[in-house]
Write a structure and sequence with these properties.
286 residues; single chain; alpha/beta; 10 helices; 41% helix; globular
Length: 286
């Protein structure tokens, strides 16, 4: 199969409009995330880690204040704001391209006001009915709406494992995400600011995650830039090898297929992997 055309969303700095898969570094400002919960919970520690991610080669830092690991309880809105806004503001003030990982429209709005250029909503607007309209209304410091990452999602962390029932996981998840994208468009979000994420690790068994990832035609069927987030997830760990090394392998594969970005905890190995994948993709395209 030839690689899908690589697409970039509008609204980001010109230096990110390149024919290279970007690396998005994960910055969890939480005490309970599955991989690094508590490591960067204090704002000064989180800000310093964000700088480290950029120094290692991350083009974007994704700041989240609510864990979405299986079984995680929700935090209230005020606590989520308390966690993320100082970090978003500090990093954006230093010129870092910041994404906010939130399912709440109020947190998205406050984060964009603080300097975020991207809203990464794992629920694609299902968790907050106001999210689509808010994303369309907001304007970043660049004068455009934020980039909006919409992920395939069936329910919150406390129930998502019970919802991993499909006739055909790649087909069903792609169709369900397309329904959410249609709802976002209806709310006013323009295609040029949308990014699609197949939702690896969310309401999917280990086998289903691999099936979805292998069906790149389905992942690319929305005609949008693609974000892949497999980093350190349980289905990756089930391989019995180092999770960051396995994540890097998925990053290289994703770049070769034409992903816009990969979302990872460990930047260095995935940066090397996407450079290899990008090079192979360009050769295959020729």
């Amino acid at each position: 199969m030839s690689p899908a055309p690589r697409r970039c969303p509008a609204g980001l700095p010109e230096h990110l409009e390149v024919d290279e898969t970007l690396v998005m570094g994960v910055l969890n400002v939480t005490p309970d995330s599955f991989s690094d919960g508590g490591e960067h919970f204090a704002a000064p520690d989180a800000i310093e880690h964000g700088r480290r991610l950029v120094a290692e080669g991350a083009a974007i830092v994704d700041v989240g204040g609510e864990s979405t690991r299986p079984g995680a309880p929700r935090v209230d809105e005020d606590e989520e704001l308390r966690r993320v806004i100082p970090v978003v503001r500090a990093l954006a003030a230093e010129g870092v391209v910041v994404s906010v990982d939130t399912m709440r429209s109020a947190v998205a709005a406050a984060s964009v006001e603080a300097g975020a250029l991207i809203v990464n909503d794992v629920s694609a607007g299902r968790a907050d009915v106001d999210m689509g309209a808010e994303a369309a209304r907001l304007r970043t410091a660049r004068g455009t709406p934020p980039v909006f990452i919409a992920m395939h999602w069936r329910g919150h962390s406390d129930v998502m494992n019970e919802l991993a029932v499909y006739d055909d996981a790649p087909r069903d998840s792609a169709l369900e995400l397309e329904d959410r994208l249609a709802a976002l468009r209806e709310a006013g979000v323009e295609d040029r600011f949308l990014v699609a994420d197949p939702g690896l690790g969310f309401s999917k068994t280990g086998e289903q995650n691999w099936d979805v990832l292998a069906d790149w035609e389905g992942i690319a069927s929305h005609g949008l830039p693609i974000l892949i987030g497999a980093s350190r997830k349980r289905f990756v760990g089930a391989l019995g090898v180092d999770r960051d090394a396995a994540t890097a392998a998925i990053s290289g594969y994703s770049a070769q297929r034409g992903a816009w970005a990969v979302r990872v905890h460990e930047v260095t190995s995935s940066l090397a992997a996407v450079r290899v994948g990008d090079r192979l993709r360009r050769s295959a395209r020729r």
